[in-house]
Amino acid sequence: MNPTGLDLPPLVAAFVFGLMGGAHCIGMCGGIMSALTFAVPPSMRHPARMGGLLLSYNAGRIISYMSAGALVALLGTLFSLSATARLLLQVFAALMLILMALYIANWWKGLLKIEAVGRRLWRFIEPVGRRLMPVVHLPQAFALGAIWGWLPCGLVYSMLAWSLAIADPLQGALLMGAFGLGTLPALLATGLAARQLSHLIRHPATRSVAALTIIAFALWQLWSLTVHNLH
């Protein structure tokens, strides 16, 4: 069962989703990536060392996404979702993307109400991450990335709706893994050029481009769902 509603294999669609969401990652998560970069002592910020730490951060983050995908998909198996329920989840995921795009561009902040649910969990997890800084070795970076992966994020929540619809823990984990790999290029670029991109990340034009890119992807998903269900 393809939970994405797109004319692509599910893992490919998830990767594309993450790649398109890279604009969101630059607009919203770039500041976090920069903070993680600056958490490394200045004497250790040479390219080879930073490359390894950034990969470790993101490996931990993707593992967290996969864990969440498996848990949510397991929940889907318990509910034995009907075809109608799965369709509604697909539509919900697309609408979440649009809400997130409006949030990124500062056009409307309604998504904060949905992310508030995740913030309750984040209040317990965030202090653990603080104790891991400054980062000086790879396992420490991996652990910090694994914690960062639970940060409240509308993009991740939209993807988890796909995992819930697929109702298969292994496939849910793989779906979230493909999504995480799609977000990797933007976050690695942001981490390696943290200082150079800091002003670009905050610029309203960057946020607007990110928002419009995500809205286009969401509309593509909704169009694909309409076409599939008309046939």
TrEMBL record:
Organism of origin: Halomonas campaniensis
Protein name per the record: Copper tolerance protein
Urease accessory protein UreH-like transmembrane domain mapped to chain residues: 13-220
Organism ancestry: Bacteria, Pseudomonadati, Pseudomonadota, Gammaproteobacteria, Oceanospirillales
Superkingdom classification of source: Bacteria
Record's keyword terms, sorted: Membrane, Transmembrane, Transmembrane helix
Entry keyword Membrane: yes
InterPro entries: UreH-like_TM_dom
Membrane-spanning parts: 12-41, 62-81, 87-105, 141-167, 173-193, 205-223
